[in-house]
Amino acid sequence: MSYLVFVLAAGLFAIFGSCGPLHRDIWFDLLARRIIAIDIDGWMATAVVLLFPIFGLIAAHSLLELLIGGSADWLVSIVVLFFSWGRGDYSTELQRLLARVQSGDRAAALVLLNCENKPEEDFDLRKVALTKFAYRGFERWFPVVLYFFLLGPVGSALYRLTHLLREYNQDVSQQLLVLLDWLPGRLLLLTFSLLGDFERTRSFLVSSLSNPRTTAEELICGGLDQAWHLQNGDPNDMLMVAATLETTEKAINRACGVWLIAASLIVLF
User: Fold this and answer.
1) What digits encode the pLDDT tens for the residues 123-169?
2) Could you tell me how far CA 205 lies from the centroid of its own chain?
3) Stretch (H or E) spanning 167
4) How many beta carbons lie within 10 A of that of residue 87, not counting itself?
5) Does residue 233 come out as left (phi exceeding 0), alpha (psi in the -120 to 50 range) or beta?
6) How far apart (Å, rounded) are the C-alpha atoms in residues 159 and 162?
7) Per residue in 28-53, pLDDT tens?
8) From CA 256, how far away is CA 116, in angstroms rounded?
9) H helices of 22-169, where?
């Protein structure tokens, strides 16, 4: 059932994208602001914000089960998984930045990266672009899929809600994200090692295991650098930035293909 739900939700997401009503998070914005405004411990506030929608989901599932029986499992799972996919049009935004970089328009590239007011001294354009799009490519798909198959729709929903909460409760939610990103981040790094330079990426993966505080941003960017040797050259050279973005897009897409094949094989056997 999980695999069929995943296929249906992924198909719907491919058709409708991330601009539909399920990705309008105004309700969560109101909930998070009200609860965090209360003077309680940060971890307690985080738990309340995350668990409140989960209890609502359980109640909605129970009500639907009374009305439509076993079909409620399918409906709720598809809706929750669709909700859990990443926000924004990742592919279009990456292509827009890539077009500006390839044309040599540094000013427009900085605007798209929200860095137009940053000082030029020691500014690493390649690193900024890589960090933004490598991690977005990771968080919008890979952890959601992994936690859906491991924990069901509740697992994928909790991951997305934690990401949404980061805007309002930075310290606690960031610590929680480090924990949630640990396993999918290292599995993606292992995937990069199979697709790129195995020895260099394997060494980086082994070293990351001894440092559990390594963030997913550092892990994914480092993995891309090691697997495809992206860190050589002038970080502000527009051709190098373009090559980094192109490699990032190809690596994320190929890794998605590997995970899809792996999921299909697990279901078959």
Assistant:
1) 788 889 999 999 999 999 999 999 999 999 999 999 999 999 988 87
2) 19
3) none
4) 16
5) left
6) 5
7) 999 998 988 887 787 898 999 999 99
8) 32
9) 26-37, 42-68, 71-84, 90-102, 106-112, 125-139, 142-151, 153-165
- Taking the C-alpha atoms of residue 266 and residue 54, their distance in angstroms, rounded to an integer, is 28
User: Which residue type is seen at 87?
Assistant: R
Quick one: the chain helix, strand, coil %, rounded to 5? 80, 0, 20
pTM: 0.92
Q: Which of 255, 87, 61 is nearest to 153 (CA)?
A: 61
How many residues comprise the chain?
269
- Other beta carbons within 10 angstroms of residue 62's beta carbon come to 11
The answer to whether the beta carbons of residues 38 and 45 sit under 8 Å apart is yes
Which run of H or E residues covers position 166?
none
Which amino acid would we find at residue 83?
F
Q: How far is the CA of 128 from the CAs of 82, 115, 204, in angstroms?
A: 29, 9, 21
The tokens describing 66, both together, are 């009374």
- Give dist(CA 162, CA 250) in Å, integer: 27
- Strand boundaries in 126-168, DSSP class E: none
Tokens, residue 132: 């933004």
238 CB-near residues (< 8 Å, 6+ apart): 101, 102, 104, 106, 109
